[in-house]
């Protein structure tokens, strides 16, 4: 009965939860298949589910669940509540609008349903659900690329590059990381069970090609390449040489790229040093503002309240495009305290769950590479939460392998039952 319920109930439910967690069909300007209000519905489900789980578990909650609740509590207070308070004192924006603006931070609560469902399926089923969800995102990305399914957005701005899609990009990235980790070790990062290197390398190639040809987001491609180097380390030279050989036809015959549908002009602008006007203007405005307010925290404004930042900085001011610089705007001089403290807290949380940090280290180092362009703490909580879920499942598996009389000697492996 357990096998039946895990295969036909929890397994498909886990796929749906991962798809929702990474907003594969979430409403955004770059998602051609976004459903309005779906992200907010998922966040509401996470909040209600976490509360119910807390009430049901009370003092008997699994150790990993209690530890990750500390992660959620810290993240919510620092990156959701504090910016709302700062915006209230700086601009007079009601706190509720500040909470709405930073609601994506609540993706940290997504760990609860994912961990709950992940414990009710086998390791192989969890990995398959994770990869199936990523392949669903990749499938719809290619469908949009080739016009199989028409764009469902009511309006597409001319400067938004209509050929570009953003369908679960961070899910595709993290699944690529997972495949590369398995290809590197030949074993599951959770259970250590042997896995087919060839199969996961093929899946990794499909996911990477999706990001290059369909998603077409430069920072995500850099993110994948950075993880590959950090993960493979000694094998990185062989990997780079193999890539050079595989890509050599495109070097000698650039027209092949256009045949495959690659936006050559878009990627070529990277090497010509063309600046993103909106991003450079935003950064300049932020530093001018910080000087004027003596580096005091300013929080963030919501478009739902008096047009947000538009009256102050114009229509092309977006904190989401400038990564750590946006964090500076929100927290001012406190950034130099909050950032290292947050990294320390997250590291302690992970270490208290399990000591094997290889996958988390490689992923976080890769995320640091694109930190100047993407807010890690404000917009990357879905990735961080999933990392902690994988880490907790790893701890649970290691715990299950220990003899009962030895379990008390490994407190970092207890819990998750």
TrEMBL record:
Transmembrane segments: 7-25, 37-56, 68-89, 129-147, 167-186, 198-214, 220-238, 322-346, 353-373
The entry's keywords: Membrane, Transmembrane, Transmembrane helix
Protein name: O-antigen ligase domain-containing protein
Organism: Pseudomonas songnenensis
